[in-house]
Design a protein that fits this description.
The structure holds 2 protein chains of 2 kinds. Chain A is α+β, with helices and mostly antiparallel strands. In chain A, 58% of the residues lie in helices and 14% in strands. In chain A, strands 1-3-2 form a 3-stranded antiparallel β-sheet. By secondary structure, chain B is α+β, with helices and mostly antiparallel strands. Classes of the chains: A alpha+beta, B alpha+beta.
Chain lengths: 105, 432
């Protein structure tokens, strides 16, 4: 049930999970997302915190440590599965398009 | 002359007025004032006039009672800081950030999540004034309506009912205002548009309407109730309003001056609320005095009670809608009884009172109506209760013992020859 809202990941969700394959803090996530997407995807800090909270609540990521004002997170097994499923879904979608276009030609 | 370095300003804005706050603050920055703190009032410090960009954001995880951000809120603030947004003030879940960079990444890049955050924060902050307080008013209203008799015969109870209904509407209007805003923005988000907050102009309008509503409500009361002392009423209300304002400002100053921890803040808020409640309670008791100070003047002119040889006690409840007077008579001829006169010019109230007390359990004496000059005459089978119903009054005689024929005659005679128009109750048709 909790995973229902993550059936398909939104773009920011996908990139946050990608960034969290290794442990990082909220600020790191913001920077890494920008880096991974080549500056295309930008996540505001408010949105980021709302999403991190949702992920933590649903066991998709977990908080690893707190130091002062900073908190670090990392993806969980559930999160990894979710990310993989999403990747497969996206790849299938891409492949389907290519095949459909190939058939037309 | 020393130049003022800080400025405190009241900004009365509705809950969803983020844009209005942003607009106000940005205009203040251009005038050379930067927001420093947000409590009961907004506090500004002097700066070089410049263009600043403000963002009002809600972080639902923050505690409503945090005087300083703590826990998870700190990492959210830190993240905002790294993204170029400096926190200038916060109050509960509401956080105000400032940036000099016009191209800084917006704090929220997802409107759906932003709407969710606003909604959660609002519910967390206002659940008591949207649900708990209205529930209290609904309960009070039901209690008032339930005790119909004491409601219609007491100006104070009527006054309370009007205040309860007024305050209920006041609280609910705020809640429904928010619901309307939410539904509208859910549609906008669905269509891929940005959330639209309430702007300065609309905020001012809403504030004006709400303030006028409260003022009219409290002006309305002394106008419709011909209270003996309107000055007293107005003075009490004014003192109450001033007292609450001073108390809250004082509590706020206390919190700021001593940087009190969360527990103390909750305590101070609680004490302030209780104090206002207690003072209101005593003020209402005072109202009771104001409204009911003619209790010692009997309106009775049956002359049952007027005879100096008889002792009697009178209880009178009187309002602008109805009155109920109970007279206990102890006579030297052993005819001890009490009678209750309920009067009202409203047919509805008379009917309701009649239905409540006399609909069942009494026998009707149809043939007596003419001679008693009344609409209806009822008796209890033992004949120690006699109820005479008029168009706008009901008189109930209750003897300690059964009425003798003689006593019945006496009562009947008094009732057919009322003194000094005591029975305005006789309608034109009966008087013919």
């Amino acid at each position: 049930m909790p995973r229902e809202q993550f059936q398909t990941l939104s773009e920011p969700m996908y990139y946050i999970l990608l960034a969290l394959r290794s442990e990082c803090s909220g600020v790191d996530v913001m920077n890494r997302v920008k880096e991974i997407s080549g500056g295309r995807v930008v996540i505001g800090p408010g949105t980021l915190y709302a999403l991190l909270q949702k992920f933590v609540d649903n066991g998709i990521i977990t908080e690893t440590k707190t130091s002062g004002r900073m908190r670090w997170y990392i993806i969980t097994k559930t999160g990894k599965t979710l990310l993989d499923e999403e990747f497969l879904r996206l790849r299938t979608m891409c492949n389907d398009k290519l095949r459909a276009e190939g058939e037309l030609q | 002359m020393k130049k003022k370095t800080t400025l405190k300003k009241f900004m009365f804005l509705p809950v969803t007025a983020c844009d209005a706050i942003k607009e106000e603050l940005e205009a203040m920055a251009l005038k050379g004032w930067k927001l420093k703190r947000m409590g009961v009032r907004y506090e500004f410090e002097r700066i070089e006039p410049k263009k600043l960009i403000y963002t009002v954001d809600f972080f639902p995880k923050a505690s409503v009672y945090d005087t300083e951000p703590s826990g998870g809120t700190l990492s959210y603030i830190e993240c905002c800081r790294q993204a170029g947004w400096e926190l200038v003030a916060s109050n509960g879940t509401m956080h105000i950030f400032v940036s000099e960079n016009e191209n800084a990444i917006p704090i929220h890049t997802d409107e759906k999540l932003r709407l969710e955050a606003v909604e959660k924060s609002m519910l967390k902050t206002y659940w008591s004034s949207w649900f708990l307080i209205p529930l209290y008013f609904v309960f009070s209203i039901i209690m008032q309506l339930f005790s119909f008799q004491s409601l219609v015969t007491s100006n104070m109870n009527l006054c309370c009912l009007i205040i309860y209904v007024g305050m209920l509407l006041f609280c609910l209007s705020d809640f429904f205002g928010f619901l309307h805003w939410k539904v509208k923005n859910q549609k906008r988000v669905k269509n891929g548009e940005k959330i639209q907050f309430v702007g300065s102009k609309t905020s001012r309008k809403i504030f004006a309407v709400r303030t006028s509503f409260v003022i009219i409500l409290f002006l309305f009361i002394p106008l419709i109730f011909s209270v003996v002392s309107r000055n007293w009423f107005c003075a009490t209300i004014t003192v109450l309003a001033l007292f609450s304002t001073v108390l809250y400002t004082f509590a706020d100053a206390l919190v700021e001056r001593f940087k009190v921890p969360k527990g103390a803040y909750v305590f101070i808020t609680f004490v302030a609320v209780i104090l206002v409640y207690v003072i209101s309670f005593f003020a209402l008791l005072k109202f009771d005095d104001i409204f009911n100070n003619d209790t010692d003047k009997p309106s009775d002119n049956f002359s049952f009670a007027a005879n100096p040889n008889y002792t009697y006690n009178i209880y009178l409840d009187k309002s602008i809608l109805a009155s109920e007077e109970e007279v206990m008579v102890e006579r030297d001829d052993e005819f001890d009884f009490r009678y209750i006169t309920f009067k009202s010019n409203s047919q509805f109230i008379i009917k309701k009172y009649y239905n409540k007390h006399y609909k069942t359990g009494y026998t009707r004496l149809p043939q007596e109506n003419e001679s008693w000059n009344a609409k209806e005459v009822l008796i209890s089978d033992e004949w120690n209760n006699l109820i005479v119903v008029y168009d706008n009054a009901i008189i109930h005689f209750n003897g300690l013992t059964d009425f003798t024929a003689e006593q019945k005659n006496e009562v009947s005679e008094k009732l057919t020859k009322p003194v000094d128009g005591f029975l305005p109750s006789l309608s034109a048709s009966h008087q013919k």
